[in-house]
């Protein structure tokens, strides 16, 4: 049992923290947000230069063979700096599908571009009525010759505006809520029949609603078994949840730090408001919530390697519950302790609150995951 | 980062487990599971079994009879003990006064007291809190005046846990009225059988008698019963209270209770089916289990950190343990109340010795709920813990 980072992991942490300290203060972030697509190509290039975009890929595929802990380190750092760039969509999710089920040809076609930063991906999964159920897929992929024809509508696709390649979940067989008959397809974003409606999200990221109308792809577009890929989707989305937990921990750390600094300097009644016990206790409760979240983020990271898929899912669901509760408390109280200034777009704390809030509603909220844990027979 | 125990640690866990299985008297275990009070005899019998095995004072330095275990081994031992469940060693002796004596006492005191603490030949109690000194402990007024070769002690202590069983007390007494309040306190030990000691039980809201008021009227104590230096008692008290940071979370206790809740909830009916099938109840239970898992991980982080980097600088996460640990213990007793529903109501009177064997087990649930309100009050109330986090961790 060990919760320390190895020497190499510590170096990784120092290097990404250093990079973001240099290039990602709050003012720079505002500029990046105004660039095309809503994030900085230059920063993305720096992440590539440091090898961070190739982190989880096997060395044979041109990556660095990093595991869950390495991803946790990166996601925490990205959270701390409130980073806009599409690491989750491209490296964690897109990369996850390729790593777990991509053919050699698919990996050769896509991994180098991810690693060198020239290509990004987006995960087109959410549908109008699917909410958090990954098996709820109405989009269809019908066989045509050797290939497939995909029809359907996908919503709130993060990085959907910029991505070169979409990873689309589509049903090859059965009915909308069947757990079998679901495939995963690589679709070029500029394929004929793909239309996008792009928009900024509440937390400053960019997403798109994507319509696929008679989109034709080849036989080589399917990642894994096109008739039975729910387990693959669950695995990759579990990894995305773990990554979001780590990002949230970074966001909470920074929110708490910013809030504590603020109440130490803000004066009312002639003294720093941080000298008032009611505020001190609130800040202490934020600390407790953030530490409990950190513990569960570590747990989820290690659970990513559990052999038993049910045990893994249950552990990660539990982590998402804890993170959801902690982030709501830390985020809301950070605004409360900042007072009026916390309500302004100008102060950075509100932006942390908004990103935290969106994380809760990504890939299953607190109630959803709590129900999953309860239905699985609990956690003791 | 690695969550798994090593092979050696797993083997150790198996050894501990099978020792408990073979050696904890079944009746003792059953009473703990059912939330009943144990008699003095039952507790002492078990502690002597533990001491004979060499595990009664596991965390003491080896020269005084400790085991030399790693932090992880201590953690495993405590977890298994709490979740079996078996009675925990008498904290006042082995966790509190013992370490103060072997750290600050003289050789004679070590020789005289330590073996008796280990074998519970003496039952110790703690004379800290006073009616006017709770969270503000350093304001205590109980006075020890030096007269020849004796201390003359006058004053009153309160919330003295199980003082009705006690042979010995370790007591914070004011020995200098003129010094700053923390600087004039001494750590003195003496017999509860001394002339002038009166114990008066306090009945708590659960109907039980765990705590007492203790009065001192011109109690004469030999001067050699001072531990360490005169007027340094506050330092020893702080040492004593900081000594056990991780046991306070009581993760094993809550785990055992959650298992019991699952078990009872599959038997007790609500709406014509077991209450465990009620979605709302099940989600509440899951929520508590998730909180406990987070706490367990936080505790493991602290344990792993201590194992690697020593106990010198406490991991900031250790402050979380008391607050969350007590909240979760309280939640488990609330869930038990919910399971038992209307049958929480019947009340029975405790026997004279605090034993409540005559009562139906269901009648233990409400008392246990009431009794557990104490856990967020004692050991530094949760509000004091928040003060500590604000000051020591956040720098406010």
UniProtKB/TrEMBL annotation, chain A:
Residues 123-209 form the Acyl-CoA oxidase/dehydrogenase middle domain. InterPro entries: Acyl-CoA_Oxase/DH_mid-dom, Acyl-CoA_Oxase/DH_mid-dom_sf, AcylCo_DH-like_C, AcylCo_DH/oxidase_C, AcylCoA_DH/ox_N, AcylCoA_DH/ox_N_sf, AcylCoA_DH/oxidase_NM_dom_sf, Pimeloyl_CoA_dehydrogenase_ssu. Residues 6-117 form the Acyl-CoA dehydrogenase/oxidase N-terminal domain. One of its GO terms (molecular function) is acyl-CoA dehydrogenase activity. Residues 233-376 form the Acyl-CoA dehydrogenase/oxidase C-terminal domain. It comes from the Bacteria. Its EC number is 1.3.1.62. Keywords: FAD, Flavoprotein, Oxidoreductase. The keyword Transmembrane helix does not apply. Its cofactor is FAD. Transmembrane segments: none annotated. NCBIfam families: pimD_small. Belongs to the acyl-CoA dehydrogenase family. This is Pimeloyl-CoA dehydrogenase small subunit.
From TrEMBL, chain B:
Its EC number is 1.3.1.62. This is Pimeloyl-CoA dehydrogenase large subunit. InterPro entries: Acyl-CoA_Oxase/DH_mid-dom, Acyl-CoA_Oxase/DH_mid-dom_sf, AcylCo_DH-like_C, AcylCo_DH/oxidase_C, AcylCoA_DH/ox_N, AcylCoA_DH/ox_N_sf, AcylCoA_DH/oxidase_NM_dom_sf, Mycobact_Acyl-CoA_DH. Pfam families: Acyl-CoA_dh_1 (PF00441), Acyl-CoA_dh_M (PF02770), Acyl-CoA_dh_N (PF02771). It is an enzyme of class 1 (oxidoreductase). One of its GO terms (molecular function) is flavin adenine dinucleotide binding. Signal peptide: none annotated. Residues 125-219 form the Acyl-CoA oxidase/dehydrogenase middle domain. PANTHER family: ACYL-COA DEHYDROGENASE, ACYL-COA DEHYDROGENASE FADE29. Its cofactor is FAD. Residues 231-394 form the Acyl-CoA dehydrogenase/oxidase C-terminal domain. It comes from the Bacteria. Keywords: FAD, Flavoprotein, Oxidoreductase. Residues 6-119 form the Acyl-CoA dehydrogenase/oxidase N-terminal domain. GO terms for cellular component: plasma membrane.
């Amino acid at each position: 049992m060990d919760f320390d980072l190895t020497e190499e992991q510590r170096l990784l942490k120092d290097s990404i923290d250093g990079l973001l300290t240099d290039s990602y203060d709050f003012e720079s972030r505002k500029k990046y947000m105004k660039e095309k697509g809503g994030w900085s190509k230059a920063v993305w290039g720096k992440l590539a230069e440091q090898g961070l975009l190739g982190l989880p890929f096997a060395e044979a595929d041109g990556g660095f063979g990093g595991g869950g802990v390495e991803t946790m380190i990166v996601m925490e750092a990205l959270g701390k700096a409130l980073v806009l760039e599409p690491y989750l969509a491209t490296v964690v999710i897109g990369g996850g599908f390729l790593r777990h089920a991509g053919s050699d040809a698919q990996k050769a076609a896509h991994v180098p571009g991810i690693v060198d930063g020239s290509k990004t991906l987006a995960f087109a999964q959410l549908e109008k009525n699917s909410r958090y159920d990954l098996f709820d897929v109405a989009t269809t992929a019908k066989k045509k010759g050797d290939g497939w024809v995909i029809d359907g509508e996908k919503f709130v696709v993060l990085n959907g505006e910029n991505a070169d390649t979409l990873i689309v979940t589509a049903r090859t067989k059965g009915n909308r809520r069947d757990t079998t008959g679901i495939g995963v397809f690589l679709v070029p974003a500029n394929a004929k029949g793909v239309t996008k409606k792009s928009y900024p999200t509440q937390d400053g990221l960019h997403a798109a609603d994507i319509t696929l109308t008679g989109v034709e792809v080849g036989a080589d577009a399917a990642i894994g078994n096109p008739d039975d890929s729910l387990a693959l989707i669950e695995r990759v989305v579990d990894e995305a949840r773990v990554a979001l937990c780590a990002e949230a921990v970074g966001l909470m750390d920074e929110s708490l730090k910013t809030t504590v600094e603020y109440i130490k300097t803000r004066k009312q009644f002639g003294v720093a408001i941080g000298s008032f016990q009611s505020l001190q206790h609130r800040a202490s409760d934020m600390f407790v919530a953030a530490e409990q979240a950190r513990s569960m983020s570590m747990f989820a990271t290690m659970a990513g390697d559990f052999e038993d898929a049910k045990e893994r899912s249950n552990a990660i669901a539990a982590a998402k519950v804890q993170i959801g509760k902690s982030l709501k408390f830390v985020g809301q109280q950070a605004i409360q302790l900042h007072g009026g200034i916390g309500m302004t777009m100008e102060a950075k704390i509100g932006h942390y609150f908004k990103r935290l809030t969106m994380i809760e509603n990504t890939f299953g909220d607190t109630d959803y995951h709590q129900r999953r844990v309860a239905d699985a027979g609990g956690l003791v | 980062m690695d969550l798994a125990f090593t092979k050696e640690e797993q083997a150790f866990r198996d050894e501990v487990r099978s020792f408990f299985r073979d050696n904890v008297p079944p009746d003792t275990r059953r009473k703990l599971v059912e939330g009943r009070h144990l008699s003095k005899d039952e507790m002492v019998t078990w502690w002597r079994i533990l001491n004979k095995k060499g595990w009664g004072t596991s965390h003491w330095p080896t020269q005084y009879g400790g085991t030399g275990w790693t932090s992880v081994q201590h953690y495993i031992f405590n977890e298994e003990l709490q979740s079996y469940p078996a009675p925990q060693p008498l904290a006042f002796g082995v966790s509190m006064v013992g370490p103060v004596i072997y750290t600050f006492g003289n050789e004679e005191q070590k020789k005289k007291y330590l073996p008796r603490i280990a074998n519970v030949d003496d039952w110790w109690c703690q004379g800290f809190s006073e009616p006017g000194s709770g969270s503000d402990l350093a304001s205590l007024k109980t006075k020890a005046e030096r007269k020849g070769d004796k201390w003359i002690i006058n004053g009153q202590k309160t919330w003295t846990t199980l003082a009705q069983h006690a042979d010995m007390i370790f007591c914070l007494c004011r020995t200098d009225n003129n010094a700053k309040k923390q600087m004039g306190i001494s750590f003195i030990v003496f017999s509860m059988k001394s002339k002038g000691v009166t114990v008066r039980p306090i009945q708590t809201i659960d109907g039980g008698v765990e705590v007492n008021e203790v009065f001192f009227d011109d109690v004469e104590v030999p001067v050699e019963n001072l531990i360490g230096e005169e007027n340094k008692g506050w330092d020893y008290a702080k040492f004593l209270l900081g000594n056990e940071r991780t046991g306070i979370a009581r993760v094993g206790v809550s785990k055992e209770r959650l298992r019991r809740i699952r078990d009872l909830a599959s038997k007790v009916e609500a709406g014509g089916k077991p209450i465990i099938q009620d979605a709302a109840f099940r989600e509440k239970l899951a929520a508590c289990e998730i909180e406990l898992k987070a706490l367990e991980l936080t505790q493991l982080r602290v344990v792993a950190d201590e194992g690697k980097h020593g106990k010198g600088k406490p991991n900031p996460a250790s402050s979380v343990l008391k607050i969350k640990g007590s909240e979760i213990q309280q939640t488990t007793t609330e869930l038990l109340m919910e399971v038992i529903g209307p049958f929480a109501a019947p009340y029975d009177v405790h026997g004279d010795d605090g034993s409540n064997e005559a009562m139906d087990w269901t009648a233990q649930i409400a008392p246990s709920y009431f009794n557990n309100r104490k856990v967020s009050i004692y050991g530094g109330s949760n509000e004091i813990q928040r003060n500590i986090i604000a000051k020591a961790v956040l720098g406010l």
